[in-house]
Amino acid sequence: MPIMPDATIWRTLLSACNVHGNGGEFEEKVRKRLLELEPKWSGNLVIVANGYADVCKWEEVARVRKSMRVKKVVGESCIEVKGCRVRFLSGYVCEASCVDVYFLLYGLSLNMMVNDP
Fold first, then answer.
1. What span, in angstroms and rounded, lies between the C-alpha atoms of 101 and 78?
2. What is residue 51's DSSP assignment?
3. C-alpha angle 56-60-61 in degrees, rounded to nearest 5
4. How many CB atoms lie within 10 A of CB 57?
């Protein structure tokens, strides 16, 4: 090959193997090489897990999916109303002071729906 194959080429080859292959030795070598190049990229892990699932290698599917587990970061949004900044976190139960902010947001969303042509 005139160029060194990078992760994109190996990923493309693995996708073709998943479509046309049968889970053989060549396909396993492609999986291994791809994960050597980009071991933490979630897209690669999904392709590898799906390939194992296609040939009913359920222990391998579980191993790959387990390696994908990461601790999720809490989502956060901020809004400023009348000079007062309010911070919202996903999964956070609203305080009584937030009711005014939610009421304002509801009014704004209604206004946008009415004025949207």
1. 11
2. H
3. 70
4. 16
Q: What is the 3-state secondary structure (H, E, C) of the chain?
A: CCCCCCHHHHHHHHHHHHHHCCCCHHHHHHHHHHHHHCCCCHHHHHHHHHHHHHCCCHHHHHHHHHHHCCCCCCCEEEEEECCEEEEEECCCCCCHHHHHHHHHHHHHHHHHHHHCC
Question: Could you give the CA distance from residue 111 to residue 108 in angstroms, rounded to a whole number?
Answer: 5
Mean pLDDT computed over every residue of the chain: 82
Distance between first and last Cα of the chain: 56
Kindly state the tokens that stand for 25.
């030795």
pTM score, two decimals?
0.56
Give the residues across from 89 on adjacent strands. Answer: 76
| Percentage of the chain exceeding pLDDT 70 | 84
Beta strand ranges found along 26-72 (DSSP E): none
